[in-house]
Fold these 2 entries.
Entry 1:
Amino acid sequence: MSSDDAVRTRVARAIAGENLFFGLRVNRDIAGRLRFWSVYSVALGHRPLHEDEEALLDDAHGAQLVADPRIWPLKLARIVSSYGGVLPGFCAGMLLCEESRLGPMAMLHAARMYTALGPALPPSGDELTDEALEAALRGCGYDPRRLPGFGVPFRAEDERLVSLHRCWRERGRSELPFARLYFALVRMQAARFGRRPNIVGGMAAAFLDMGFSPDQVALVGLGLGVAYFVANAAEGAAQRHPALLHLPATAYAGPAPRRSRRAGG
Amino acid sequence: MTTPSDDAPGPGEAYEFPSVLTGHVVAPGDEPRVHGFGVDTDLSRHFRFGEVVLLTLTGEEPTAEAGRVFDLALMHVLPLSVGTAPVHATVLARLAAGRVPAVLGVAGLALAEHAAAFAEPFEALVAWAGGGATDAPPPALAGREPRAAALLAQATALGAAPPPMHSASLNHAGAVLLLFYTSGLRHRWQVEAAIMMAGLPACAAEAAHHTPMNIRSYPLNQPPFVYEGGDAP
């Protein structure tokens, strides 16, 4: 095998007495110097974050914490962990989120929309009118009545956004470009279609303003989701609840009993 | 903003949801039934395992010829060697001292990805074969490979001839997918499930040949990795 066939990696290499990580040295540059979200950011191929960016990620991590075990991805984690293993449940729940509109990676679709809209919008400084926004959305192939990051199932508004909006303003980051676009969309969606935003769209805009790409935004979502998947997988594994191993409340709606042709039916 | 009490109704209480989970394939009971056919008194007495798998995937009683062609297709997706990603991953899981469910879970995950990649051109093949295969096959499935020709000849000898037009210009993957089509599968998820199932024995059996934590037995530098960390961000 020639060196051209080698697997090239930016991620890491272990050397004598040190570990390299995306061009950084762990002992010299990371340990004791970078906080969790900065290391996570570097792991996504991005830069270490500024203090206010790390703080807003901490804020978002708290604000988006909805861990009700009845929510589909979390219930999935719960079911699989009911055999007693935490990680199978955790992995099953996380696996469901790949490119899904449910769960922490759902930010991908909203982030892609924001970045697609950017070049279609009026020059910076101009007011983002509802008409301009709607035209830009249609120009990018989006139906303004069905935007990712909008729509709040089962309730009037997304309670998680209340905290996120407050933190966003307090951190002084609510006037950044993608934040402005988000709030303009919120205004337009409410006025035109009576639709409310959910936290997916808000977080996607906030993270794009940190310089993450849409794919990186989705993977930030993965980091945000760890706590509620771990919580449900750990409790599920500890409980081994029989109703999750074999759900009693089931019905059968398939074909009625029948005999095969080979059996003389 | 007021703080609601812990027992305030939430979204889960605000709407009416079904009280039961409805199934459509297996009816439980003293004698389980698959799509209505009794396992104990019918399927296990009159059908081979591959035929029951096919019946489960399609909901229809297969002909004997379709069952044989399905078996043949399964045999051609079963032999995954140690270098293939599903087996390699399963071996690595075993070496890392994973407990058996974790090792098999890794196998299942890798097999699902492998099956998805293998079956990716299936919809194009369905359109091609369903149209009589009068044109050249989809590019991803085209190629004159002796093993593909031998497989199609074997299927023809079993009595379930695949669509003849241009089938000789299929590569091996195309021939296998054509056999899945000929056996009655029409949806990609059916093919993916079949490929995944067929690949599991090789993954599990190969992993069992490796000793957990035997670090020196594994070729750590195959393939070689080259670090290109570049400048610090």
Note: DSSP finds ten helices and five strands in chain B.
Entry 2:
Amino acid sequence: MKSIFKITLFLAAVALMAVLSVSNHIATSVVTAATADASAATVAPTVTPTPLPSVEGTLTIWVNPERQAIIEAAGKDFSAKYNVPVRVQTMNFGDIRTNFNIAAPAGNGPDIIAGANDWIGELYSNGLLATVDLADKVKSFDPVAVQAFTYDGKTVGVPYQVEAVAMFYNKDLVPTPPTTWDETQAVATKLQADKKADQGFAFTVTGELYGHYGLLTSYGGGVFGRDAQGGYDAKQVIMDNAGSIQAATELDKLVKAGVLKDGVTYDVAKDLFLKGRLAMWVNGPWELDNIRKSGINFGIAVIPAGTEKAHPFVGVQGFMVSKLSKNALLAQAFVSEFLATDDTMLKLYQAQFGVPAWLPTRTKVTNPDIDAFSASIANGDPLPGIPAMASVWTLSNNALNLVYQQKAAPDAAMKDASASLRDLIAKAK
Amino acid sequence: MIRFGQSSLRALFFKLAILAVVDAFAIQLSITLGTRIGAALGIAIAVFTIIVNIVFLDERLYPWRWISPALAGMFLLVVYPMAYSVTVAFTNRGDGHTLTKQQVLGQWEATYFTPDNAEIYKAYIFARPVADPQQSDFRFWLVDPDGKTFIASSDVTGLQAVPANDTTYGARDSKDVPNALGEFVRITPQRYSTRLAGLTIQNPPHLIKLTKLLLLDQAFQAQTQEHVYVYDSAKNEVTDQQTNKVYREERGNFVTGTGADREILVPGFEAYIGFDNLLRVVLDANVRDPFWRIFAWTVVFAVSTVVTQFALGLLFALVLNSPDLPLRPLWRSLLIIPYAVPFWLGAEVWRGLLNPSYGPINLMLKNLIGISPQWFSDPGLAKLMILFVNMYLGFSYMMLISLGALQSIPHDIYEAAVIDGANDIQRFRFMTLPLILVAVGPLLIASFAFNFNNFTIIELLNNGGPPMSAASVAGHTDILLSYTYRLAFSGAQGADYGFAAAVGMFIFVIVATLTFLNFRFTGALEKVAENG
């Protein structure tokens, strides 16, 4: 008797809980469906669980918090004009990449993401990026930006902001910036000898390829050669061509001359520059605010030349459309017809400082810093987005560090790193 | 002990309420994980839930009650992840191989190309008004570049030409597009773009697809399209209609040609690749050669860290334990600071202090004795530096537990020892140390296990540097875990989880062996305790 009572009670409890947990699911789908069908042109409230997935008839966009306001505003305009609800979800810039990679194949991805061009290879080879037809508008974009957003001959997004490192210099210490590495060495050595600066010159971070790429290319070196379409070709590793080795030898010379030093991390270099103890620093527009605040009398020049102009890495940010989006055509129209307009591009620029990829906006804004960085970008190479880049960072940093630490001859370091890189690429599945 | 079932109705109710809450969570977990990760996991959780319920309801299974939740937890948090990792080790999962074959074939199915003689139309959309907008069907009004107009539908083959002077469809707008096609009314295209994009107009020998949404025109662009890929499921081959190349399946890719002509279709998909990942750990010289050096350093690192942390901690504990020490609480508080300050902050501070070019320690050493040790670029010094910093970060904890252990040693045995004529060193060596080790031994072993996988300190202090050579991703201070991390995320294809899981299996074997030895060691300590 007692046991029957117990079991009945228990079954009732389990049934109750099952109903509760299932009804939770039903409630979620009802809300989702309601959101999708909301005919009113409003930005739907974010009631569904995170991260917001692509829903038919509603555009879902993942952006970083810095861009949330402007994209939400653009979304409202779009909704009002075309009667399509737009939902904006924010997450940290780097998380967009990770979450998109996980959520999209599972069907939980958004329609559009804000991203950087160096993600493209990974996302595209994972089958997650749709092509975007820019048609005639392609002429209105900085060619480097379009190239950076082109993969395998296809345009895979709408670029909107371009950035590259240039050379910040302290005008009180260096009245006219040096234009060659020899001049740089002379100026830096003199400043250090006269005790006017602790360090005359520094790259963004000691021994990291990103900042040193300008040096490599200024002697005709680099990382990857280009294919017929101008894209990077992982089969052509040029990190040990004559130019790259000459650049590494120049690096070795600068280290031996005491101009470049081991252990100058980003924080150390920044601290020195802001205190006026570092005269020239290769870095990007993201440090402008800090440098302005410090009151240093600074200028921005292009990176010194070797046997040719330096080509820094150009990073490009923009919007990409998910191939697994339920609204692919709508999303493509949103980015190519709505975002790629004078009005939206200007608003994007006003919301977040950076060199606009949309040339009409770049001509329109008057800002000497934009002009200075544009000059550096004009010479730049797109930051490679091909998946092989993942193996480049560690190996190239090892090679550069060994030169800084004087533990390897410059040519041996570059050759070793390149040989391993070729080996890894050949073995890639 | 409370025995719910037999005591009272209220206790029974209480028990069932708790069980129901647990079940609710379990059902939720089973549904969520079952649908998101894999049906097997969902079913396993459900089965465990049922077993736990039976065990708790049946008085005869009383002894199993308190062990069953532990077993369930062990399955979910240990056995399942382990089995999962082992499965992954035999796959090519990683960047370029995240989708399933089905998804990839689906993508290719939906890939079209525009043939040379393609017609381009502007397509206006009309829908039959029905109560549920999701159910409506569509008609297209196509306008070709010459201005000729057609009516088309996805369920009728061919286009129906509409002459320019036709008046069947009534009023037209400024672009000469009718407002309605019979009962079908003009709609704004964007709301239906998903279903519209999926529709195909059969116009032999070609297809017409909507290829682009023209927001400003409130229309679509429609084009003659052809499938790029045709999949032959019997042969498991994909044919590219444009190039006539035939792609065969190979390790999670469709490939054609060999050697230099080898071409791969992107994206690839997840597939089982057998022992390739495991063999690579053994056969690839760039992976294997650093492996044993790194293993040796990992052991040295973990053992030395425990020994140095414990030695310094015990030393301070002995000093603090002495009743003659003035201001004891002050010293104790100060010595706890390294442990109280966040771990990464301490590491960052030491990184700055030891900076070879601008760190205060090196500037001081240079001024005083003219040397500037390269803490980050000399392999030996880098190892010493990491051991020193890790000792600094961890000794407070050892000091705290040693202080506790010291309190528990009875004073009278020391009095007896003094009477027996034992000196300070003998009393420490033969009494304090063994008795403390009995108490803190398991903690030392736990600390060893923790440091064996102390990825954070390695990554924070020197990223595993200095590099062993430019040819390898390995650094002189890398431990097995950080080395695995570098291998997994520095592949030429991006992240390579399959390979990382394979390296993980090797590490598991090593750690399991060491743990077994540790248990033997603990057993030895218990014997000391029995003898003591």
Note: The two ends of chain A are 65 Å apart (CA to CA).
